[in-house]
Amino acid sequence: MATTMDLRIDLQPITAQGSTEPFAWHAGIQARAQAFHTVDAILLREDRAELEGIRLDRALAAAAAAGLADAGTLLAVPVQVRAGAPDRLLGHLFRAALRHRFPLDQIVVEISADESTDRDAAAAMIHACTDRGMMIGLSDFAAGPLALGLLAHCSPRLIRLAPALVHHLEAAPARARLVEGVLRLAGGMGVTVIAPVPTAEAGQRAAAAAGLRHFQGTPNSAPHVRRYTRPVRRWGAPIAATRLAA
């Protein structure tokens, strides 16, 4: 197993068509597959919650360092619902926001709507966020049974479409019609639908024809990435508070 864990915070802008000013940012939390995700998979649930707390803290730290709190934009923060009880995970998020002075009313708690997501855990997180007045986002949305089921029980602020759903729409008319259906459904609920920004001109035309108006990322530009590393603990060793080095 690797001796270091490489954790990256990838801040990507979310803009409306025709605008260069982001109205929101997405705090992607990434790591090398053979380090972070391997360790996460073998941990006990209580240890996964602590690891998720580290991820959330790093996401809020990166957003604060980038000046997003003062900018007043939304920040979509992915939360892994399988990592622990909703109260505990939201507690980590609230403490991170307080520590880095990031306003809670700018945070969107993002929950994966991928079909592999634990339905009960996702529903519990939605309920906990609703009770606390937190904004909700659904990611990896591909209009599958789980995604539509979650959407039926909440009014998310944002929906991020699964990249596979909108990939090369110009060559996939069936998927384009599906995207149009999601947009009609979301539009009736007042939900903003976001897709990865198309890089090719044909993809841009197809996205516009399908009705997509909000995009994540910027073509031909490097993402704003902040990298952190920390040692990976030995198997069976207790988790200790560890300062992450930028």
From TrEMBL:
It comes from the Bacteria. It comes from Sphingomonas trueperi. PROSITE patterns: EAL (PS50883). Signal peptide: none annotated. This is EAL domain-containing protein (Putative c-di-GMP-specific phosphodiesterase class I). Transmembrane segments: none annotated. InterPro entries: Cyclic-di-GMP_PDE-like, EAL_dom, EAL_sf. Gene3D superfamilies: EAL domain (3.20.20.450). One of its GO terms (molecular function) is cyclic-guanylate-specific phosphodiesterase activity. Residues 1-237 form the EAL domain.
